[in-house]
Amino acid sequence: MKQKVISWVVTVGSLSMAASSMAAEPGGLALQSIQLGAADRTRLQHDVMADRLARPAAYDVVAVAKGCRPDGWRTARTPEPNCSRELRALGPAGLLPMLNALALDWSPKGLSTDVGLRTQEERALTVGMLEAIGTLRDTRARPVLHAMWQQARGRADMLAPLGRQMTVARATAEALGRLGGALELQVLQAHLRPDDPLYAAAIAGLGLCKRTDSAQLLVTALANAKDDATQRWIVQAMGALASSWSWQALGRVRMEDGLRVRQRVTDALLPLLAKTQSESRERVVESLQLADLPDLPARLANLRATADATLRHDIDDLLGRVARAHATR
Fold first, then answer.
1. Number of H helices, E strands in the chain
2. How far is CA 203 from CA 171, 242, 284, in A?
3. CA 95 to chain centre
4. H helices of 112-227, where?
5. CB-CB contact of 240 with 208 (8 Å)
6. Rounded to whole angstroms, how far apart are CA atoms 119 and 129?
7. d(Cα 52, Cα 55) in Å, to the nearest integer?
8. Quick one: the chain helix, strand, coil %, rounded to 5?
9. How many CA atoms lie within 13 A of 6 on its CB side?
10. Distance of CA 124 to CAs 65, 121, 141, 305, Å?
11. Is the dihedral of CA 15, 94, 157, 201 positive or negative?
12. What is the mean pLDDT of residues 236-253?
């Protein structure tokens, strides 16, 4: 009995020390902890404290991600820091360590002493964590992701033009999209104006938001696209949304939703084959292939009957890709 009491006292003492340590920290890598609502902050701190006592090693892995340390990404000869793969490899065990690092307690180890490189490495760490968190689709991440999206609205340095490298804003939007709730759809939809600084990020987020409403929003955005670059970006998001493989991974319960989304995307993209050329047409071809609607070959054959020589060639190429993909399954 005495041993149990001592063990309980040690545990409570450890939790109290961890809480005091957190309170003294200015915040995480991406957020100040005060940017979370009081209830959300308290809940996350409690979950992290218990998890850290049980699995401290996971927190060390996040702090020393090799792909974002100078000796790591330079040895790998990558053009810039990237630790997304190793952070995703943590699986569900990495969720709380990454949320802690982003919003509560960031203790970097081994990053560059050069200010410019360190900024690049910390941005890559943030993006890597967001990508890994997004793939988990765990609602415990919701307060941190929404706080980061709110912050992105006033942070021009988090943004980049269409088609550029991954940014923190886009990674946040994609993680929100993967959560896929009605609230996430609402906050992304609020930025679907071409003059909105978060427009490109919102488009990318909707491409990963597995909802029928997302398909309609992207179809409308495509109809309103004013230039080829924006059109290609939207078409790419539509392909990601309609991907037959990704819907299959969600299970039979989402099969009907997936079929409706794939149908809607295919209906919108098929007419574009005849209206686009070169890179834009290739992007349409890729997205149609991802959607892989069962009647796509028949619809392509009908379109081919009235196509010019160039379009016939592209249709034949797409038909060949679809046939080869089915043959390997």
1. 18, 0
2. 12, 14, 16
3. 14
4. 115-136, 142-152, 168-179, 182-189, 199-206, 212-223
5. yes
6. 15
7. 5
8. 75, 0, 25
9. 3
10. 10, 5, 19, 49
11. negative
12. 94
Question: Which pair of tokens denotes residue 187?
Answer: 């906050």
Cβ atoms of residues 200 and 177 within 8 Å: no
pLDDT in tens, 181-208: 999 999 999 999 988 889 999 999 999 9
Of 29-38, 119-128, 154-163, 272-281, which gets the smallest average pLDDT? Answer: 154-163
C-alpha 16/C-alpha 181 separation (Å) is: 35
pLDDT reading at 111 higher than 80? no
Q: Which of 191, 76, 172 is nearest to 129 (CA)?
A: 172
This prediction has a pTM of 0.85
Domain-wise residue ranges, the chain: 1-136
| Pairwise CA distance, residues 95 & 87, whole Å | 10
Arithmetic mean of pLDDT over the chain: 85
> Residue 283 is which amino acid?
R
Burial grade of 267 (CB within 10 A; 0-12, 13-18, 19 or more): middle
Is the pLDDT confidence value at 121 over 50? yes
Helix (H, G, I), strand (E, B) or coil at 277: coil
| Whole-number Å distance between alpha carbons of 192 and 187 | 10
Kindly report the CA angle at 169 between 166 and 172, in degrees rounded to 5? 95
